Amino acid sequence: GFLSRKWISTMSDALKTEDPQHPTTCEFYQMPVGGIDLREEIDNLDISNIGYFGPPKEDIIKLPSTLKYHDLRSIGKTFSLGEFGAKTHPAWLAGFGYHIQRNEEERNKLFLAAIFYSFGMGTPRANNWCFLDPSSSIFPWGLFYPCDEVPKECAMVMRAGGFLLRQINAAPPSPPSLYLLIPSQNRVGGG
C-alpha cells in the first residue's frame, strides 16, 4: 500500500503540474490484491479505474456489483472500466479462470454486458484489453486480427453497441438515498 500510494501520488502530481485540466487515473485490480487497494490509493487521482476479468458466465453476473464497489462518485471521483476481454483462440482451450477459451457468443455477450452495464451505471468508458491482437504471441484479446487488421466479430458488436448508445441522452444520475460507511479494516479483512 505505502509504495503504490507514493508512486501514484508522485506520478499524479507530476502530470497535474504539466496539465492541471485533464483528469488522472491509473488502473487497479478489480478487487484489492497484495496490498494494492484502489480505495486506499485514489487520493490524488480523479477516476476510479479497474480492469475486470472473470471466468465465463461468472464474469457477467459479477460485473455490476464489481463496478458498484468502485463507484466513488460520493467522494467526487468518477469510475470506469479500464479494460476487459475474452479469449477465443484454441490455444486457451486448456486454460483456467479467465485465461480460458470461450466461444464467440460468450465473448460477444461479455462485450455487450461490459459496455451496457458501464453505460447504465454511469461510467464514462469501457475499454477492451487491446485493439489489435499481438502478432508476436498468442494472447488474443484484441478487436482486430494481427497483421491485416481485419475486425473480429466482437469489434462489430462493440461498434454496434457504441452506435446505439450514442442515440441515448443519459440523464445525470441522482445521488444515492443511502450510503454505507465501512471501515477499511472490515472491507479488506476477510472473505
Structural class: alpha/beta
Mean pLDDT: 88
| Unreliable spans | none
Oligomeric state of shown chains: single chain
> What's the order of the H and E elements?
HEHEHEHEHH
Percent range for β-strand residues = 5-15%
Biggest sheet strand line-up = 1-2-3-4
Helical fraction:
25-40%
Number of strands: 4
Radius of gyration: 18 Å
Q: How many helices does DSSP assign?
A: 6
What are the salient characteristics of this protein?
9% strand; 191 residues; four-stranded parallel sheet; single chain; alpha/beta
Could you write a compact summary of the structure shown?
The protein is an alpha/beta fold and about 190 residues long. About 35% of the residues lie in helices and about 10% in strands.
